[in-house]
Amino acid sequence: MTKTKQQVSVLFMLFSILFCVCLIAANILETKQISVFGISLTGGLIVFPVSYIINDCVCEVWGFRKARLLIWTGFAMNFFFVTMGALCDWIPGAPYWTNQEGFHAIFGLAPRVAAASFVAFIVGSFANAYVMSKMKIHDGGKRFSLRAILSTVAGETCDSIIFFPLALGGVVPTEELPKLMLWQVLLKTLYEVIALPLTIRIVRKLKSHEGEDVYDNGINYSIWQIFSIG
């Protein structure tokens, strides 16, 4: 089943909305430090891996070109949210406002951290989509589970390698950074593995409902061809 469309379906639109919500929610949840089995992590771990699962579903069903549109849409919406949060944080509070410190802790994202987050997201997300797309062509559509896991490893590795040194270099001891990066990759990949049975069912339902199962033969993988979706 292959189709060429210069339009998006309702289901693709709903997945895109969920993708954007996950990214924005991850920004807020990242401000809380949590402990999982004695391992210190950020709250964003709860929701951020869902964006990679959505990326896998979109790339598998609709192909790399629509995944590219999804990624840039998520980037734009997240950038808008972070910018508005920073602007509101910068505007002086009312005389009776007493929660500025808490508000700043959530929305006063440092420019260095914000830049690192945006760059890491773009590189990691496109690495995930590229591996999914290329492996699907190579395997003839078989072994979805393997490419879903390996694409997550590729994406999360790129994300962590970029984000942690850029955002936390000089803040976190140098010898601790590799540990942080490794745990992020391992736990987010484990998240993908646990969710895999549900992901497989969703992908099957999507392919059946949409009547699509796109193979990206001969496409342009440039990340800048944003509106080339058909």
Automatic annotation (TrEMBL):
This is Probable queuosine precursor transporter. Involved in the import of queuosine (Q) precursors, required for Q precursor salvage. GO terms for cellular component: plasma membrane. It is found in: Cell membrane. Its main location: membrane. The chain crosses the membrane at residues 7-28, 34-55, 67-93, 113-132, 144-168, 180-200. It is a multi-pass membrane protein. It comes from the Bacteria. InterPro entries: YhhQ (IPR003744). The keyword Disulfide bond does not apply. Belongs to the vitamin uptake transporter (VUT/ECF) (TC 2.A.88) family. Q precursor transporter subfamily. Keywords: Cell membrane, Membrane, Transmembrane, Transmembrane helix, Transport. The keyword Mitochondrion does not apply. One of its GO terms (molecular function) is transmembrane transporter activity. It comes from Prevotella corporis.
